[in-house]
Specification:
Organism: Nosocomiicoccus ampullae
Number of helices: 10
Largest sheet: 6 strands, mixed
Keywords: ATP-binding, Hydrolase, Nucleotide-binding, Transport
CATH superfamily: P-loop containing nucleotide triphosphate hydrolases
Domain ABC transporter: 14-252
CATH class: Alpha Beta
Family: Belongs to the ABC transporter superfamily.
Number of strands: 12
Order of helices and strands: EEEHEEHEHHHHHEHEEEHHEE
Strand order of the largest sheet: 6-7-8-3-9-10
EC number: 3.6.3.-
């Protein structure tokens, strides 16, 4: 599905260079991000993890162009990120997508096609190519049988797939997900990560932002730990080798490491005195 023509295929698909950001409120200055540097290669699945208030949301808004850069730069395919290349290269699934859907009187078909609005314009009719793209992403995510159902009638896991389909219908090179498993039960979380594995096999680059290190470290190729600074950036296995002191520094409170089924894993479990 992903085809890139006229792009610099040797450059990282996404690069964050020396990005810093501060909030100014009355007489106080709050540093949200300091000198963040990250590169994401084509086809990579990267998870950015950190506690609430760590700067993840600020970085996400800078990536999406919702906030303007104060320092540093963001590159897509080696070129400065702009409104145009964000709209054509980046697909986004909001943390609030599932809750928004519950009060939205539209069918799955209508929701997914609405992802083409920026590309086609608000009042243009959809054409044969658009409907072919619709069928492709619905088939890819195994939700074609939901095509004419009301979005409000779906389960949390089904709704999440619909909004991923909406993000994918523009054929983006990068899929950005903000706390995508929020409010989804364990069974549907596993199903969700199966979808991401499929998308990665299709060539989609995935950037997932979350505070939950539980399941994501089993899925992502690389992990970046953010808490104002970038405290760690490495492979899944390197992240698993971090000790409690290193994880505690990232999360801002004591962390315990626990094991399940003889496999060492990381959980955000504060010590209880």
């Amino acid at each position: 599905m992903i085809e890139s023509e006229g792009e610099n295929m040797t450059a990282p698909i996404f690069e964050i260079k020396d990005v810093s950001y501060k909030y100014y409120e009355k007489m106080e200055t709050t540093v949200a991000l300091q000198n963040i540097n990250l590169k994401i290669d084509r086809g990579e699945f990267m998870a950015i993890v950190g506690p609430n208030g760590s700067g993840k949301s600020t970085l996400l808004k800078l990536i999406l162009g919702i906030k303007k850069l104060q320092e540093g730069e963001i590159l897509i395919n080696g070129k400065p990120a702009s409104r145009k290349n964000r709209e054509t290269k980046v697909g986004y699934v909001s943390q609030k997508a599932a809750s928004f859907a519950k009060g939205f009187p539209a069918t799955v078909k209508e929701v997914v096609l609405s992802g083409l609005t920026k590309k086609r314009g608000l009042f243009k009719r959809f054409n044969k190519e658009d409907y072919e793209a619709l069928d492709y992403v619905l088939n890819l995510l195994d939700i074609k049988d939901l095509k004419n159902k009301n979005i409000a009638s779906l389960s949390g896991g089904q709704t999440q797939r619909v909004f991923i389909a909406r993000a994918l219908i523009n054929n983006p090179e990068i899929l950005v997900l903000d706390e995508p498993t929020e409010g989804i039960d364990a069974r549907n979380i596993n199903s969700f990560y199966e979808v991401l594995t499929l998308l990665k096999e299709e060539g989609t680059t995935i950037l997932l932002v979350t505070h939950d290190i539980g399941v994501v470290i089993d899925q992502a190729d690389t992990v970046a730990c953010l808490n104002e600074h970038l405290h760690f950036h490495g492979t899944n296995q390197e992240f698993r080798n971090l000790d409690e002191a290193q994880l505690s520094k990232v999360y801002g409170f004591p962390i315990q490491l626990v094991s399940h089924d003889h496999d060492r894993s990381c959980c955000e479990v504060p010590h209880v005195n």
